[in-house]
Amino acid sequence: MSHHVRHSRIPVEFAVPEITPRETVTTLQAATGTSHFVEANGIKLHYLDYGTAGRRPMLCVHGGSAHAHWYDFVAPGFTADHHVLSLDLRGHGDSAWADPHTYSWKTYAADINAFVEKLDLRDFVLIGHSMGGMVSLVYAATHPGRLARLVIVDSIMLMPADRVSKMNEFGARPARSYATQEELVARYRLEPADTQMAAPEVIQRMALHAGRQDAHGRWQHKADRRVYSNFRQIAGIPLWEKIKVPALAIRGERSTRFTPEVLAEVRALAPQVQMAEVPASDHHITLDNPQRFVEVVRKFLIERG
After folding, report:
1. What is the DSSP secondary structure assignment for residue 89, as one 8-state letter?
2. pLDDT, tens only, 222-243
3. Nearest alpha-carbon partner for 59 in 113, 127, 8
4. How high is the pLDDT of residue 26?
5. pLDDT at res. 21
């Protein structure tokens, strides 16, 4: 199924003006967060701290095969009134790899819970993209005590079984390696492949943070592809029944994930959930159109306190 198929319009509560494609490149400069490690839930987790300490915490969670830098271009839009942190999930970015059987929704959510407790984050905003959105939803449904606001960004609420099978097959294959960092960067693509709308300089920054050199001098992706060998289908919609905090679901204008039907099912269980669509974006909204992503999230946070 093409990710460029346009579904019927969702009623968008946070209307944003129509823009020309060139405006999708953010006027915000990419943030350079400070790098930190913490032991939580028995694993070494890496996170970026963009500042500003003392403000309300905001924890950002990336999607599958991605990393904490997915929020580099949007973090500057929140640091005026939030302390913005971006976590590398286990098996991703600079966090440690783990036993593939621990790459599960429950364990990822337990990692977030342990991380939040370790840093003593309270009354915080949680933003999760794609797989990270589902992890955030599982966390919010399971550990509601410290969470104040939830933002789910273009997450599929039920992964089709055939896609899960393909992901399992991908996870079982050996990882590729590259002779140089330049080769890894040149071959770097966002997935799904037909959804790439981000500016080249944005993609390049993600690529530069996506690989590392191994003991033999070759370059490999930081993401443990075995994450996908243990990938399981999860039904996201029933989890919304346990979500009581103000929440925002964001979809990219060209994305097919949050259809009107899915939103109606979500709202039947959690009527407080609001919806926003970011123009000139597909699945990777924080990369495709960072400026408008920031505007939509800030509007929600201002209106919902």
Report:
1. P
2. 999 999 999 999 999 999 999 9
3. 127
4. 53
5. 41
Q: What is d(CA 197, CA 280) in angstroms, rounded to the nearest whole number?
A: 8
Global confidence as pTM:
0.91
Taking CA atoms, 126 is separated from 58, 86, 160, 177, in Å, by 6, 10, 26, 34
Residue 152 token pair: 């789910």
Give the containing element (helix H, strand E) for 293: helix 290-303
End-to-end Cα separation, the chain, in angstroms: 39
pLDDT one-digit tens code per residue, 262-288: 999 999 999 999 999 999 999 999 999
Query: Which residue, 297, 302, 286, 300, is CA-closest to 28?
Result: 286
What are 265's two structure tokens? 């099912």
Are 67 and 92 contacting, i.e. CB atoms less than 8 angstroms apart?
Answer: yes
The pLDDT score that the predictor gives to residue 28 is 65
Integer Cα distance of 191 and 66 in angstroms: 10
Q: Which two tokens stand for residue 3?
A: 């990710």
The token pair at 200 is 């080249």
Q: Which domains does the chain have, with CATH numbers?
A: 21-303 (3.40.50.1820)
